[in-house]
Amino acid sequence: MIVRDSEFLRRISSEALVISMARYKVLKGVAHNIGHSFTSLMNYAGDDYVMGHILRFARRTGRDTLTIDFVKREAGPPELLAEPISEVPARYAEWFWDLVQRHGSERSLVESATLTLRFDIGTQRPHHSAPQLVESPFTCDVRITDVRGKDYLAHFDGWWYPERLEHSRTESRPWWKFWLPRGQIN
Predict the structure, then answer these.
(1) Number of other residues whose CB lies within 10 A of the CB of residue 70
(2) 76 contacts 83 by C-beta, under 8 angstroms
(3) Domain residues for 158?
(4) Has residue 150 been placed in a domain?
(5) What one-character-per-residue DSSP string does 13-78 give?
(6) Total domains present in the chain
(7) Is 178 exposed, middle or buried (0-12, 13-18, 19+ CB in 10 A)?
């Protein structure tokens, strides 16, 4: 079969256009995956889930919104990023770019990308199965804007609670002495 040059070029051009469009389209999946991971039970640091740490810091400081800018590699406010989660935004920024590449897109196609997590710290309720744990509602929005100005959005919401309870050192006791009444710890 003989293919003329003009037909060959037309075929290659249309295939290149499809590939180029697919590179942009996958950014919606990147937005979903990064947001889902951030709010999931797989995002754990130290002695609690990252979301639990952020909620605890938000209640303590009154700062209820965390923003991570993946392009600028910035996150804040710093009051919500104390240990043990201070390095989480940097890890997620690395992973974000890895996702962009693995989904078949390119860094050069992304103009901006942010994750915004907001807790409604004014609203609280006891957790249904563990009333000593108090949960608050959250929203997590991921926005990726490509170089053409098109936005790819993902939205997550729900309720979260810190699993790490705030106890003073004098109240806590080692796990092996749980059967002793408080105050009788050596």
Answers:
(1) 25
(2) no
(3) 24-165
(4) yes
(5) HHHHHHHHHHHHHTHHHHHHHHHHHHTSTT-EETTEEHHHHHHHHHHHHS--EEEEETTTTEEE-G
(6) 1
(7) exposed
For residue 141, give both structure tokens: 């929005």
153 part of a folded domain: yes
- Alpha carbon distance 1, 106 (integer Å): 36
Tokens of 116: 């915004």
Q: Please tell me whether the peptide bond between 84 and the residue prior to it is cis, using omega within 30 degrees of 0.
A: yes
Asked whether residue 3 is assigned to any structural domain, the reply reads no
- Establish if 1 belongs to a structural domain: no
Which residue is listed with tokens 């075929």? Answer: 11
Tokens of 125: 């309720």
Rounded Cα–Cα distance for residues 87 and 81 (Å):
8
Going residue by residue through the chain (186 aa), what tens digit of pLDDT does each one get? 555 666 655 665 555 544 545 489 999 999 999 999 999 999 999 999 999 999 999 999 999 999 999 999 999 999 999 999 999 999 999 999 999 999 999 999 999 999 999 999 999 999 999 999 999 999 999 999 999 999 999 999 999 999 876 643 444 555 555 555 555 555
Q: Are strands 134-146 and 151-160 parallel, antiparallel or unpaired?
A: antiparallel
